[in-house]
Design a protein that fits this description.
Organism: Isoptericola hypogeus
Keywords: Acyltransferase, Transferase
Helix content: 25-40%
Protein name: GNAT family N-acetyltransferase
Structural class: alpha+beta
Pfam families: Acetyltransf_1 (PF00583)
InterPro entries: Acyl_CoA_acyltransferase, GNAT_dom, YpeA/RimI_acetyltransf
Strand order of the largest sheet: 1-2-3-4-5-7-6
Distance between the termini: 35 Å
């Protein structure tokens, strides 16, 4: 393999004992230049959380319950990206406010390290999370993106998501819902 060829990457579900890796990747995501638009917490807020929080987060994402976190891992064991699927049921409160109207998988915490972007990792992460959603009987995936986060919007369009027409305002400004049939 030449140095210009992409390294092998495995996309898989997080395991319960991988809380340190979950924490490290989240903190890396929160240092991205557009983190203030993409995530609902700051690096300092996340870094201040105790280890028990991160243990619980990994356990919950690995448990087979309504949350599933997927990661892209290279052959050296380095985590390159992640996405988390939240199973939403009609009548529940959405993670971003408002009532859920239909059974769906809400994709959150989307991040690919800058040096791994452009290699199809995001599409593979989405495929894994959407496959999990289909296994749950869901027919629609959704995600939300800040209107000023053009890089993320372009990546989501490339991955087959389209604006639903729904917008809402969070502390960081206007968000756009994007959806994709499964």
């Amino acid at each position: 393999m030449t140095t210009n060829e992409p390294r092998p990457v495995t996309v898989r579900r997080v395991r319960a004992d991988e809380w340190r890796e979950v924490k490290e990747l989240r903190l890396a995501a929160l240092q991205d230049p557009v983190a203030h638009l993409a995530f609902l917490e700051t690096h300092d807020e996340a870094a201040a959380k105790p280890d028990g929080f991160w243990r619980g987060r990994a356990e919950g994402a690995a448990s087979g319950g309504p949350v599933a976190q997927y990661v892209a891992v290279d052959d050296d064991g380095r985590w390159l990206g992640t996405v988390t699927g939240l199973l939403e049921e009609p009548g529940q409160d959405s993670a971003l406010g408002g009532a859920v109207q239909r059974r769906q998988v809400h994709l959150v915490g989307v991040f690919v390290r800058p040096e791994a972007r452009g290699a199809g990792i995001l599409q593979r992460l989405f495929a894994a999370a959407q496959g999990w959603g289909r296994e749950q009987g869901v027919e629609l995936a959704r995600l939300c993106v800040h209107v000023d986060n053009s890089r993320a919007r372009a990546a989501y369009l490339k991955a087959g998501f389209a604006p639903s027409g729904t917008t809402f305002t969070l502390d960081a400004g206007e968000e756009l819902e994007m959806v994709r049939p499964l």
